[in-house]
Amino acid sequence: MIPENLKYTAEHEWVQLDGDRARVGITHYAQDALGDVVFVQLPEVGTAVTAGQACGEVESTKSVSEIYAPLSGEVLARNETLDSRPDLVNQDPYGEGWLIEISAAGAAATADLLDADAYGQLTAQA
Amino acid sequence: MAEFGGWEMPIQYSGVVEEHSAVRDAVGIFDVSHLGNVEVTGPGAKEFVNSCFTNDLDRIGPGQAQYTLCCDDATGGVVDDLIVYHGTTDARFSAGFAGMHLVPNASNTPEVVRRLRAAAPGGIEIKDQHEDFAIVAVQGPKSQQALGDVGISIDLDYMAFTLVERDGVRVVVCRTGYTGEHGYELVVPSDAVGPLWDALLEAASAHGGRACGLGARDTLRTEMGYPLHGHDLSLDITPVQARCGWAVGWSKPAFWGRDVLAAEREAGPRRLLWGLRAEDRGIPRPDMVVRSAAGDDVGVVTSGTFSPTLKIGIGLALLAPPVAEGDQVTVDVRGRPSVMRVVKPPFVPSHVRP
Question: Per residue in B94-136, pLDDT tens?
Fold first, then answer.
């Protein structure tokens, strides 16, 4: 359930680095804990986000959780489909349920993030 | 699982939206054994209970249930809202309860019992049977069929109850609920509930139903505008403010809080419980501030959720006059103003009376 090719944060976001673009979503573990996602609020394209700072919200029938930027950069794209299909975050958290893409300056940008093993240990303890 | 009123409760089994839809479209079963069970017996038990709680027990007879409120005598604030089941010792009725059987909310049961005992005259016995009974709610348009499938074939009027025997177990079946659908609540001895739950779950599944948790119970009751104690009713909120005057026997000579509530009703409450219906993507949540079109604080959200039926945010809020039905207000959703319409619940049609 924890893809090996992604990086993770302790706040349950995943990051997929593709050149200088980093695609961001929330993990399977996070969507399962949240329950049915009914609303996703994402930052506008062009917004500067800072690593560790809240940049959006995922709201479920049960609660609201903040989305923390896993790295600093500019928002290059957001998943507009979630506006009408917020449930994609539950159905396909690592695929069609992605949230935003942030500009990232190469592999160094994700150096501080967790790998799949470390994230797996984190969620096993929880 | 989550702690709720001192009980370990399932928030969800398969997902709130799925469980919610099962109740609206088919049938859902809920373990609501956290609800209290209190038996009031002895000569004059009915008169005693009627002199404490707000609703007029003389409106019902053996085999009927009534929604009522236990208020603080000095402030009129709501100690608890509960159901009174009018039992009987008359052998011609098989109602299942010997006296006035109360079903209060989990965490309020000790306080309701304490207040009753403090006021009870000699000869009245008040028994806290909280852990003696389990309660299973069977709710939804297929609820009667699901009960029939487990050998409980009945045809009850809304708010009526009767005793049935299933596999040697005494089950009190009540046409009550908290979902707005045709449904039942089954009061069963705790040690015998397991097999009944399993049988009901199997029967419900055959009708497209499923087990439901507290999450769906909350979205279902919010769609109906039913208040939840601790949110829309509390010691700080009176029945007049919460629009529960229909559950008050105003012409009764006595009940706890009568004087202060009658005065508030006469003067007009300083705030009223309204429904909020989002006109954008906002979802109201408890404690969010409500502002008028002019930007003034006019009240606070007491309950709020995403409505799985309407696919929008809905909520209940205590709002000060002159805010009234049809007004547009804004709710401060974590710093973002969300536009909502003031409405009178229910948000979706009730189906409790076919």
Answer: 678 989 999 999 999 999 999 999 999 999 999 999 999 999 9
* Separation CA B83–CA B55 (nearest Å): 10
Give me the residue from A39, A57, A61 closest to B17, CB to CB.
A61
- B4 has pLDDT over 90: no
One-letter-per-residue 3-state SS of chain A: CCCCCCEECCCCEEEEEECCEEEEEECHHHHHHHCCEEEEECCCCCCEECCCCEEEEEEECCCEEEEECCCCEEEEEECHHHHCCCCHHHHCCCCCCCCEEEECCCHHHHCCCECHHHHHHHHHHC
CATH homologous superfamily of B270-343 equals Aminomethyltransferase beta-barrel domains (2.40.30.110)
Judged by average pLDDT, the poorest of A54-58, B192-196, B220-224 is A54-58
Report CA-CA distances (Å) from B224 to A62, B178, B352: 18, 9, 11
Q: Which two tokens stand for residue B27?
A: 């049938």
Nearest to A38 by CA among A90, A87, A108, A92: A87
pLDDT beyond 70 at B1 = no
- Looking at beta carbons, which residues of chain A come within 8 Å of B21? none
Alpha-carbon gap, residue A47 to A77, rounded angstroms = 10
The per-residue pLDDT for B339 is: 97
Note the pTM of the prediction, 2 decimals.
Answer: 0.90
Tokens of B353: 């009376």
Sequence spans of domains, chain B: 2-222, 270-343
| Residue B196 near residue B169 (C-beta atoms within 8 A) | yes
Residue pairs between chains A and B whose CB atoms are closer than 8 Å: 38
Predicted confidence at residue B145, as pLDDT, reads: 98
Pairing of strands B65-71, B38-41: unpaired
Chain B residue closest to A83 (CA)? B281
Q: How confident is the model at residue B166 (pLDDT cuts 50, 70, 90)?
A: very high
Q: Is B283 on the interface with A (CB under 8 A)?
A: yes
Q: Which is nearest to A82 in space by CA: A96, A62, A101, A94?
A: A96
Q: If you compute the radius of gyration of chain B from its CA atoms, what whole number of angstroms results? A: 20
Is beta strand B161-166 parallel, antiparallel or unpaired with respect to B38-41?
unpaired
The mean per-residue pLDDT over the stretch B22-38 comes to 97
- Is the pLDDT assigned to residue B8 strictly greater than 90? no
- A-contacting residues of B 150-179, CB under 8 Å? none
Mean pLDDT of B196-217: 97
pLDDT band at A126 (very low <50, low <70, confident <90, very high): low
Nearest CA in chain B to A39: B281
Q: Do domains B2-222 and B270-343 have the same CATH topology?
A: no
Residue type for B179, please? T
Fold of B2-222: Gyrase A; domain 2 (3.30.1360)
